[in-house]
Design brief:
Layout (H helix, E strand, L loop, with lengths): L1 H18 L8 H18 L15 E6 L13 E12 L4 E9 L7 E3 L1 E9 L2 E2 L5 E3 L7 E3 L4 E3 L3 E5 L4 E13 L3 E2 L6 E4 L12 E5 L2 E2 L1 E7 L4 E6 L1 H4 L11 H11 L12 E6 L22 H6 L4 E7 L2 H5 L9 H16 L4 E5 L12 H16 L5 E3 L1 H5 L22 H10 L6 H9 L3
Parallel strand pairs: 17-18, 17-19, 19-20, 20-21
Antiparallel strand pairs: 1-16, 2-11, 2-13, 3-9, 3-10, 3-16, 4-8, 5-6, 5-7, 5-11, 12-15, 13-14
Helix pairs in contact: 1-2, 4-10
């Protein structure tokens, strides 16, 4: 502004000097017109400046928890809520002082209305710890209507969220709402209230419990740290692990990142872990079961690139493509390798490091055959022996039986010969070298919070 006034002042003086040369020959009205024109011309001549960006870029959000949505479910498994509150329990990987949530209607065909929402620390069961319940708004409004195919991100609220803690996210659903966007395998007890808005209630008046996560897809905290996204199928989703215990292999990785001290940097890493596994998911094509989600290639932008703070991607997917390969729709190693390359290219374009994981044994599973085992071995050999992934985690070597490498180690087998048990998932999470993420952890040492 000072520069603007200075330019106008100089221009006015120049024009005043000009018109004062012959004052008797110029009428006063003309003098005023010329002076005003001079000021306008000076203003127009000022160099333009781009509009300054809002200071939102100073915020650093990182995914502390996440899941991958799928749907719509078949009629037999469709959850319907009528004037009810759902209280969803999620387990954070990292902590922060502010929190926000992402809710999704991305698989819905009609608008989703959330009449009220709150977040707080869980005390146990459906109870929220006293003094921690915070109301959530969306663009400053307590009610949000999300159109079909879209997500919505809440405004942040102040809340001290410890790492590895349980949060209770309460959503009031007025009218009748169907959970067409849902993560089917929550392995977590969630709660549905009696009719009414009970988002602020503790304890919740529970009508029934559910083992799914409807609508909620991410929880972010305000930290400058990066996030690891684990993209996969049922083995990343934690199928056949014990419910309500957080025994998926990404859960074990998150625990280690918080509890193990790195020998080089000497601190616990503030690195989020966001689980985007979906039971039954495939790399190449969509499963006939809508609850198994769209293919990893199709959902990549939503489930990986849209995750706040993502810097690392772990890819463990392909066994369902191999298992469901048939004479009429054969899958080849070349097909899978080409799809892996697509994920690598798309991640690298956004500065994300991609870590490939070998496919675990499956002899004895319902869709096993010797020919499919040959295909699995070919894919694993490519993952191990090519430098296209930035790093490799050899889950096959960790979980296989040394005596019969095409099978799970019996101590790790859940019984279906396809999925690990709790001990097997722990072995997988414990086998991930934390040095893969050391560069990000080092960067946090000098980065202010």
């Amino acid at each position: 502004m000072n520069r603007f006034l200075s330019v106008l002042h100089d221009a006015a003086h120049r024009f005043r000097d000009l018109i004062d040369v012959q004052p008797a020959r110029m009428p006063p009205a003309r003098r005023r017109l010329l002076l005003g024109s001079a000021m306008l011309a000076a203003a127009i001549a000022l160099p333009s400046h781009p509009a300054g960006a809002q200071p939102w870029t100073t915020e650093h959000w990182t995914g502390a928890w996440g899941t991958a949505p799928a749907g719509p479910p078949p009629e037999a498994s469709l959850q319907t809520f009528t004037d009810q509150t759902v209280r969803l329990i999620v387990h954070t990987s990292i902590g922060g002082n502010r929190v926000r949530i992402r809710v999704s209607n991305e698989l819905g065909s009609t608008a989703l209305t959330i009449g009220a929402a709150r977040v707080g620390l869980r005390a146990g069961g459906s109870d929220v710890a006293a003094g921690t319940s915070r109301p959530l708004t969306f663009g400053g409004r307590s009610v949000v209507t999300i159109p079909p195919g879209a997500p919505a991100v809440s405004d942040p609220v102040e809340l001290n969220v410890p790492p590895l803690s349980d949060l209770a996210v309460s959503l009031y659903l007025p009218g009748t709402m169907q959970a067409t966007t849902v993560h089917q395998l929550a392995l977590q007890t969630n709660y549905v209230s009696l009719p009414g808005n009970f988002t602020a209630a503790s304890p919740l008046p529970v009508q029934r419990t559910i083992q799914v996560w409807p609508f909620l897809t991410e929880v972010d905290v305000d930290t400058a740290g990066p996030a690891i996204v684990t993209l996969g199928d049922s083995i990343t989703d934690g199928t056949r692990s014990t419910p309500d215990t957080n025994n998926r292999w990404p859960d074990w990785l998150a625990r280690r990142l918080q509890t193990e001290r790195d020998p080089v940097i000497g601190i616990n890493a503030r690195i989020g872990v966001v689980n985007r596994g979906i039971s039954g998911n495939r790399l190449l094509s969509n499963s006939p079961n809508t609850l198994s989600g769209r293919s990893a290639q199709e959902r990549f932008d939503r489930d990986v690139l849209a995750t706040n703070g993502v810097r690392y991607l772990v890819v463990l997917i392909g066994i369902n493509d191999i298992g469901n390969s048939s004479a009429t729709a054969p899958v080849t190693a070349e097909d899978l390798i080409a799809a892996y390359r697509q994920l690598i290219h798309r991640a690298h374009a956004k500065g994300i490091s991609v870590i490939g994981a070998t496919l675990t044994p499956f002899e004895g599973a319902a869709y096993y055959s010797p020919e499919k085992e040959t295909l699995r071995q070919a894919v694993n050999n490519w993952i191990r022996n090519n430098d296209e992934f930035d790093a490799v985690i050899d889950f096959d070597r960790v979980t296989r039986d040394p005596v019969r490498p095409t099978r799970f180690l019996p101590a790790y087998d859940s019984g279906d010969h396809l999925h690990p048990n709790d001990l097997g998932y722990q072995a997988m999470g414990s086998a991930v070298p934390l040095t893969l993420f050391r560069s990000a952890a080092k960067a946090q040492v000098t980065r202010p919070l």
